[in-house]
Amino acid sequence: MHTLRITLIGLILLSLFVFVATQINRRKNRPAVDGAYLFIWVWLVASITNFCVGVFIVGYSVLTELGVHVVVFDLSAGVAWFLSRKFRVENAKGQPCVIATSTKPSGDVYEHRSVRFRKLTWF
Predict the structure, then answer these.
(1) pLDDT, tens digit only, all 123 positions of the chain
(2) Considering Cα of 19, then 68, then 46, then 42, what sign does the dihedral take?
(3) 47 with 111: CB under 8 angstroms?
(4) Rounded to an integer, what distance in angstroms lies between the CA atom of residue 34 and that of residue 28?
(5) pTM for this structure?
(6) What CA–CA distance (Å, rounded) separates 55 from 9?
(7) Rounded CA gap, 89 and 97, in Å?
(8) What is the C-alpha separation between 101 and 113, in angstroms, rounded?
């Protein structure tokens, strides 16, 4: 039951990250934010913390906790990876679209690479 609960919390947290990133991306003057990509890193830290609590405080064996956390992390991170790839727009070379260039005071030109998203549609 704990595994199911943690997995559902992960999927709810993923939807929250994607929703907030979508709201941030509505602003035209900012680089696009990939909420699903950010979620994977946050979920990795949360999964490692939960793993350590299970092993060191509750007393489960490492193999038991490892088996559970492979499912918990992989399911949520897999959905996040799919969403991140599905809504990313790339150029012909497979690189994220360049949305701006800038120059430093030294005169060097830098390209700011970011991710642009297709409109999120559920139907």
Answers:
(1) 888 999 999 999 999 988 888 888 777 666 667 788 889 999 999 999 999 999 999 999 999 999 988 888 999 999 888 887 776 644 444 555 444 444 455 554 444 444 444 544 443
(2) negative
(3) no
(4) 15
(5) 0.66
(6) 20
(7) 7
(8) 9
Closest CA to 5 of 88, 68, 92, 87: 68
CA proximity to 7, closest of 61, 64, 56, 46: 46
Dihedral angle at the C-alpha atoms of 69, 6, 41, 98, nearest 10 degrees?
A: 120
Distances (CA, A) of 28 to 10, 22, 31, 42, 99: 29, 12, 8, 26, 10
What single letter denotes the amino acid at residue 93? K
